[in-house]
Amino acid sequence: MLPRLKKILVIRLSSFGDIVLSFPLLKKIKEKLPECEVHFLTKKNYEDVLLLNPDIDKIIFNDDRLSDTRKKVTDESYDLIIDIHKNFRSIYLSAFNSKNVVRYKKENFKKFLFVKFKINFLKEVTPVWKKYILPVKRFLNFDKLNFEVSELTFDRTKSIEGKYTVIAPASRHFTKTYPAEKFIQYINNNTGTRFVLVGDNSKKEKLICSEIERSCKNVLNLCGKLTINNLAEVIYNSSHLICNDSAVLHLAEALGKKVIAIFGSTVREFGFFPQLEGSEVYENEGLVCRPCTHIGRGSCPKGHFKCMMGIEI
Fold it and tell me: What is the tens place of the pLDDT at every residue in 283-295?
């Protein structure tokens, strides 16, 4: 007999994209258990991302002292803890803190074999959002899983007049970043389209967007100028998004927007490809050196960077 679930904790300490990919899990919990209280444990700097999601009843922050955070978890007396981070911290925070603790399968060894030796045991691709849900299948009693748009809450009032396409040209890692000069070429070949550049407040992303802005007349550079709420609105009211393998891809799809994604060193098997039927992916599939990493690298190990340089959009 399955336990009655009145209070559930989901643990995902980082990062932006991975947290957004938890939204289908939160939606499924609320669909199956509408009276259940859902809490989410993460780092303070991801609070604004979680505030977009009305399926979360309470956000708990990971303190500097893990023992203090663990006490918070213990005091809540959860009926179920879902660990979708699965590292030392999340295991420590969840272990023996509920009668029911489940964790998702990271499959790190399979990723290692694929990257290091090109031995692919990930041919049956399971997207990450689905990996987050599968551990709770017996509690939620569902048959089929399809990707669904999330019902996020933010001010949807259009802030940019007219039709435009959003470009998020940066990514955290070099090998996941389509070269700025190629974005410039694409934008200048489409002078009839207005493009809006978005990115975070980091020096690297600002430099990329500034370089594109200097070389193109039909762009509006909003890099570093948007809150998470503003970013959601700008994407929501756009025609579509062009981006790399990055967090903004998953936010756009959570909003139901078409994505054109450019994948370099990472591949479909890692579970981060777009899920909406209308979304598209550009990748250089014929390279034997790909994937060279499952998270991204600071430089191309072969020196040629063909995984990105060989793509034209």
Answer: 999 899 999 999 9
- Summarised one tens digit per residue, pLDDT across range 84-134 is 999 999 999 999 999 999 999 999 999 999 999 999 999 999 999 999 999
Cα separation, 219 vs 286, whole angstroms: 33
CA 265 to mean position of chain CA atoms: 17
Together in a domain, 49 and 100? yes
Report pTM.
0.96
Pick from 65, 128, 127, 74: nearest CA to 101: 74
Put residue 303 in one of left, alpha, beta given phi > 0 → left and psi -120 to 50 → alpha. left
Is 121 in the same domain as 71? yes
Q: How far apart are CA 242 and CA 195, in angstroms?
A: 10
Composition of the chain by helix, strand, coil, percent to 5: 35, 15, 50
Question: CATH code at 177?
Answer: 3.40.50.2000
Kindly state whether residues 169 and 302 are assigned to the same domain.
Answer: yes
